[in-house]
Specification:
The chain is mostly helical. 95% of the residues lie in helices and 0% in strands. It is built from 1 helix and no strands. It is rod-shaped, with a radius of gyration of 17 Å.
Length: 39
């Protein structure tokens, strides 16, 4: 039971990390795109 909870927590952490990196990459690409639009 405890092992299952630990695995679930690890999966949740991995998911949040991937979502965070995806958000950071999308924000970076949006800012780069807006800089190219200004030129």
């Amino acid at each position: 039971m405890l092992l299952l909870l630990l695995i679930l927590l690890l999966l949740l952490l991995l998911l949040s990390m991937s979502v965070f990196t995806f958000a950071a990459i999308s924000l970076l690409s949006i800012s780069l795109y807006s800089e190219y639009e200004n030129i």
